[in-house]
């Protein structure tokens, strides 16, 4: 297990599913954890689970679209737990399904705003102190549509592709100061988000492949991404900063492949050259 003793981790979307598992893994590796999300009851449950296992955690209800609220939350983390060593942006919204002429424009934009603007706000809030201390790691979760088309999921896909590019740009801006940023695709995990896709009328109509994949047994345990992120937080994959890692992969094999991935410019968001 990764050793995160003496570190402080902030995990957004930490009230359930993948986010709760990430928070628990960070705590079990020794980190003090701040669990952030909009629903107080859920993150309080996450914090209570960590405390029950002997860890230290606080729960902070946050609307990540509100920059002032985010900045106040990060200040509270620093005051209560100490400087932030690891930030994991796990929050996500995917409620606009279908072709854009059928999607509610406000819902479509809300997905983009929560996913992308929320990530911008948290990164902006922690970056100056990380740079000043000369260390820090940020993990931004991506997913379906990051590198390929996602028919009838354009808002979510556009936001995740943007987060991938943002992660690379951000990493290239801060890496010389000892700060590293990563993108992680957890794979298809059964969460409240995918339940909405499975059982809502719009989801059944426009995203039938989700049900098919689950029927075929594709259901990645959230612990896979959580364990990977704990290793990232401990520095195991620093060579791959600015790139995308996947929860489904064998971490030992990934470590062996790091030099080749960097040499080939793999796991990055790139356009195919016209002369290829």
Automatic annotation (TrEMBL):
One of its GO terms (molecular function) is oxidoreductase activity. GO terms for cellular component: membrane. Keywords: Oxidoreductase. Transmembrane segments: none annotated. CDD domains: SDR_c. Belongs to the short-chain dehydrogenases/reductases (SDR) family. This is Short-chain dehydrogenase.
């Amino acid at each position: 297990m990764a050793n995160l003793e003496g570190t402080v981790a902030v995990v957004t979307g930490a009230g359930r599913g993948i986010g709760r598992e990430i928070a628990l893994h960070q705590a079990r590796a020794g980190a003090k954890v701040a669990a952030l999300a909009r629903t107080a009851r859920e993150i309080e449950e996450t914090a209570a689970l960590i405390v029950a296992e002997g860890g230290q955690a606080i729960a902070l209800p946050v609307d990540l679209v509100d920059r002032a609220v985010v900045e106040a939350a990060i200040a509270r983390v620093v005051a209560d737990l100490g400087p932030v060593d690891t930030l994991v942006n796990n929050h996500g919204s995917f409620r606009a399904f279908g072709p854009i002429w059928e999607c509610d424009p406000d819902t479509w934009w809300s997905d983009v705003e929560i996913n992308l603007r929320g990530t911008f706000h948290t990164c902006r809030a922690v970056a100056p102190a990380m740079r000043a201390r000369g260390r820090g790691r940020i993990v931004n979760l991506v997913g379906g549509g990051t590198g390929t088309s996602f028919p009838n999921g354009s808002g979510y896909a556009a936001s995740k592709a943007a987060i991938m590019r943002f992660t690379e740009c951000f990493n290239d801006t801060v890496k010389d100061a000892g700060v590293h940023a990563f993108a992680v695709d957890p794979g298809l995990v059964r969460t409240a988000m995918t339940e909405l896709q499975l059982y809502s009328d719009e989801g059944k109509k426009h995203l039938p492949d989700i049900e098919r994949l689950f029927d075929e047994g594709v259901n990645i345990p959230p612990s896979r991404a959580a364990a990977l992120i704990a290793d990232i937080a401990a520095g195991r994959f620093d060579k791959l900063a600015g790139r995308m890692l996947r929860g489904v992969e064998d971490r030992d094999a990934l470590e062996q492949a790091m030099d080749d991935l960097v040499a080939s410019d793999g796991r990055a968001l790139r356009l195919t050259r016209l002369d290829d």
